[in-house]
Amino acid sequence: MEQKNRSVFSAGILALLVVLFVTLIILSSEFLKGMRLDLTENGLYTLSDGTRNILANMDEPVTLYLYFSEDVSRDLPQFRSYARWAGEMLEEFVDHSGGKLTLKRVNPEPFSPQEDEAAAYGLQAVPVGAAGDTLYFGLVGTNSLDGLQMMPFLQPDKEKFLEYDLAKMVSALSHPEHRKVGLLSGLDMAPGFDPATQQVREAWVIHQQLSQLFDLQDIRPESGELPAGLELLVMVHPKNLGDEMLYQIDQFVLRGGRLLVFMDPLAEADMGGDPNDPMARMNAGGSSTLGSLLEAWGVGFDADKFVGDLAYALQVSIAQGQPPVRHLGILSVGADGMNGTDVATADLQAVNFSSAGWLVPLENAGSGFEPLIETSENAAPIDAMRLRFLSDPQDLFEGFQPTGDRFALAARINGKAGTAFDEPPEGVPLVEHMVESGEAGINVVLFADTDILTDRLWVQKQNFLGQVIVNSFADNGTLVANLADQLLGSSDLIGIRTRAGTVKPFGVVEELRLSAEAQFRDTEQRLQAELAETERKLGEMQSARQDSELTVLTADQQEEVQRFVDRKLQIRAELRQVQHNLSRDIEALGKRLKFINIVLVPVLIIIVAVVFGLRRRRRQGTGK
To answer: Distance between CA 493 and CA 501 in Å, rounded?
Structure first.
């Protein structure tokens, strides 16, 4: 009878679960339509506010084509998982676009017209498998004005940049405009004639790069005015600028203009010639700063000192035939010195600096100060005059004591800021005088080095059949292009940060494993200590015996050896018990997670659905 009642009770519970499940299906379709709840730890399916604003303010309709080889990828779970997540994020983009964004999924099967389209767009075909199949996983975006944007291949290891890249593509297609960039430089970066060498001067590679990417306009520092319609101003070594030009820059920034500045305590390229020549360095043009403008933006910069770093110091050659030596002033900052949350720096591997200064936020500043690149903790300031007369880089180590602090070599400044001028300088045309920035605040990126832009720090040039081939060995050019591209975007695009990846370590299991490993190490150390002690005692016993007795163990020795063997077996049992406990804890954790995922979460969802349904029907019944 008891067995029968138990069976009836189990059948009743099963029937109730079935009813609740069916109720969930019905109610979810009626009452939860369009509702989404992102319960992932880092909001993997939740768009940032910046992305939502970009989608809500689209001017031009955009169509995105997601090319993914479904059949070829069947044995590639990593790509299939990432493709599913990327597709779901694109669906989120569509849902927030107000009908301005359309997504079309394309499966470019081998020898199909869709594969020909993918190849025509320039999407990357990755060979997979022994059969020679090719995998397509790229994105193409178009607008009604024949605009075209493309991501040749969506790499899973770049997933933290996906939201930014998608928002950037949509923004560019939705607002097709010609980007106007001004370059105000105190260094000869542009092509021209060098009177010192009586030869044609080639443009710096960074100048060529900016000219290819944007409508670049060179601005003479002495002109005293900025071109109309400028979206981004790039300033390099801004020395001896007049009040008229400083005022124009001040007002440009306060009105929402974007600014990218490269200052320097010692610009080694100022006077031309060989920057490695001590005499050329002695006669160099010195420092550059924006003075009162920096103070108005809440930033401090010491133009008389540079920062040395033991961890990032590069090796340089000082004379032919001599071994290279480390130079505290020439730094190669690795990925650990980059801001991992800013899209412009998060994916860089190395950026090289030379005689760089550093930036600090001023107290009571109303603006925000976000370091983009920092030194290590093995850094300290050095007087810039020591570089002018430096013949041996090893001399910089004399008296060098790291402070334990990290120094900002580059920083992003945003937020509220005021003007550096009480009134316009005399002779400046009367226009509206901005006293402080608007609601959006200022958008300025500052570097405490100009040598970062010189060819010698990041590219090698080779002549191949009459053509100059440029190969980069550092990410200096990529960094500048990233920042210029980012600053030219909307404030919403600038505000988008990298997001966490979809693959997450199992933190609790990892803690259990580390705890077990610690126990193993302690037990092993104890065993080794006992082994050493036993061997020492055996050695003492052996040395006290006569030569004729060396082959025979005494009773004491036999007892000591047997004690060690017994203890060794006991410790092995302890090791097995630690391993057993670890497996037991992980198995118990897995059972709890299965219960939560299979039973508890569905029941909670059912309860939520029922509550929403009852409340909805109650409101309909009362006519509210």
So the answer is: 20
